[in-house]
Amino acid sequence: MDKDEPRILDLLPQQYPFRFIDQVPLYKPGKRMQASFDPAALRTCLGGGAAIPVSVLIEGLAQTAVLLTQLETRPLGPGEMPLLGKVRASIKEQAVWDRLVYYELAPERIWQRQAVFSGSVQDEDGRPLVTATLLVAIADKGSDPK
């Protein structure tokens, strides 16, 4: 995965400080993807609380879903953007800033412009933080009003 990793991350429209994926250590086509994130550098700009906001963990899982959708179908085209349509999540534990976060995602069903995934977020010790089912879609941006 190392030689393709920068290209894979380039598929994400999000940039620092809103990109919550640093690496993609595992991608098995049609099976699963694992991505990782080191949250320590973003602590100050994300509020500086004792725990990582759960919304950051879910967004990181959604960003993993966007990557997996593009790798399983096709990259986003001009005028297209990824949308998180629905999330059903169960929060297990809080995540702390000084521990790596791992997102694990598997496709349940993939169509041309939509996909359903089941996944989880764990810390570097394998402690479950969040489990979720996500629906993502590709939408047209439309035109800017004049």
Automatic annotation (TrEMBL):
SUPFAM superfamilies in UniProt: Thioesterase/thiol ester dehydrase-isomerase (SSF54637)
InterPro entries (alphabetical): HotDog_dom_sf
Protein's UniProt name: 3-hydroxyacyl-[acyl-carrier-protein] dehydratase
Organism, scientific name: Xylanibacillus composti
